[in-house]
Amino acid sequence: MTKKIFSGVQPTGNLHLGNYLGAIKNFVELNNDKENDCIFCVVDLHAITVKQDKYQLKSNIRETAATFIASGIDPSKSIIFNQSEVPAHAEGSWILSCMAPMGWLNRMTQFKEKAGKDKEKASVGLYIYPVLMASDILLYDATHVPVGEDQKQHLELTRDIAHKFNKDFKCDDFLKVPEPLIKENFSRIMSLKDGLKKMSKSDPSDLSRINLTDSKDEIVNKVKKAKTDSFPIPNDEEKLKSRPEAENLLGIFSSISNQTLGKTLDEFGGKNFSDLKVQLAEILSSKISPISEEIKKLTNDQQYLDNILLEGANKANEIARKKILEIKKIIGF
Ligand code: TYM
User: Fold this and answer.
1) Which protein residue's CA is at the shortest distance from atom 33 of ligand 1?
2) To the nearest 10°, the Cα dihedral for 101, 6, 61, 110?
3) Pair 235, 268: CB distance under 8 Å
4) Residue 220: partners with Cβ closer than 8 Å, 6 or more residues away
5) Closest to 92 (Cα-Cα) out of 50, 53, 155, 134
6) Edge to edge, what strands does the sheet with 144-146 contain?
7) Which residues in the chain are classed under CATH 1.10.240.10?
8) Element (H or E) spanning 32, and its range?
9) 4, 77, 134, 308 - which has most CB atoms within 10 Å?
10) 144, containing H or E segment
11) Which of 28, 71, 144, 147 for mutating ligand 1's site (highest number of atoms within 8 Å of CB)?
12) d(CA 52, ligand 1 centre) in Å
């Protein structure tokens, strides 16, 4: 059966190793499987839930599209587009927000984290953002949604919204209930400076993350400065449980090398972190630097990127417009 894949990445700059290992690397594998129909969206409507500089936003949109392509997504196989070019996303979001109970949204932990103590000042958009995400997915009848672990709760909400819509309007199976594709291992990459904090674009310390645009020297430097503990690397996974920084670095090494944590521990068990760091810096540079060089090349060719996004938006519009018309008919417009 053909899998319909949909996923999105926010154009908020500083795409990092967490985005790559948690999501984009999987997008590439899915893109390479002929059986799949893939759609990858630069979710600019999501980005404006927090304040953005208008010039920076435009360049971040292009850079995110460039990152998809530089990582290996082939725009002749997969649809790449930006969300604001397809009006059905916002329309669908409004309609679904009238179906989703406040109680469901009140449970979203990411809103609580992002809004922090100053909840009263957070935008309404940030609060209903998971409903926009549901609209993104449901408009395309996506069967599978590849994401990092931090998006799991939002996908559960999408599934609940789809079930509720189908039940409320007695249209069984009209909105397709998608399956999350979250890798069992290494789907939550942590900060290089604090193994208990997620690697994130918004961390004020650039040393906390490897950006996909970092040069070889920057990667080597960041790995060198990554936090570790003072014990040697253990031989078995059980002993990593209370050592978050060690677990993170070994996880990153395993994920980027496409091998199990067990195999990595066989290689490094009993050794010091300096040994791991040398090899980690080497493999990260060899995998990330070509992507970073390609991003630079592509972002210099704005016309090429704009054409890809335009072509993608035309194709996405065709699919989403049909679905939103059906939705409107079902609800009685
Ligand atoms: P965003 O832009 O924050 O992140 C893009 C993808 O990267 C993953 N990710 C991580 N994975 C592992 N470790 C990390 N430290 C890490 N940080 C980020 C995210 O899980 C995500 O898969 N709401 C989404 C974007 C979105 C979307 C969608 C996704 C909008 N509509 C529809 C899927 C389907 C977000 O903000 O991702």
Assistant:
1) 7
2) 40
3) no
4) 281, 285
5) 134
6) 79-82, 36-42, 3-9, 144-146, 179-181
7) 206-297
8) helix 25-32
9) 134
10) strand 144-146
11) 147
12) 18
Tell me the pLDDT band of 14, cut-offs 50, 70 and 90: confident
The third-level CATH classification (topology) of the domain covering 3-186+302-331 is Rossmann fold (3.40.50)
| Residue 120 burial (10 A CB sphere; 0-12, 13-18, 19+) | exposed
DSSP assignment of 251-296? HHHHHHTT--HHHHHHHHTTS-HHHHHHHHHHHHHHHHHHHHHHHH
Which H or E run contains 6? Answer: strand 3-9
Ligand 1 test: best mutation among 4, 6, 19, most atoms within 8 Å of CB?
Answer: 19
Q: Which candidate, 150, 155, 149, 188, places its Cα nearest to that of 6?
A: 155
Pull the structure tokens for residue 254: 């395993």
In the block, residue with structure tokens 């040697």:
232
pTM value surpassing 0.85: yes
Measured CA to CA, the distance from residue 95 to residue 330 in angstroms comes to 11
- Ligand 1 atom closest to residue 129's alpha carbon, by position in its atom list: 23
Per-residue model confidence as pLDDT tens digits over 217-248? 999 999 999 999 999 999 999 999 899 999 99
Active site residue 201: yes
Task: Give the DSSP H/E element, type plus range, for residue 146.
Answer: strand 144-146
Residue 88 to residue 204: CA distance in whole angstroms: 35
Outline which parts of the chain fall under CATH 3.40.50.620: 3-186+302-331
Whole-number Å distance between alpha carbons of 64 and 70: 10
The two tokens of residue 285 are 């540079």
**CB neighbours (10 Å) of residue 293?**
14
- Given a contact cutoff of 8 angstroms between Cβ atoms, the answer to whether 316 and 79 are in contact is yes
Q: What CATH fold (topology level) applies to the domain 206-297?
A: Tyrosyl-Transfer RNA Synthetase (1.10.240)
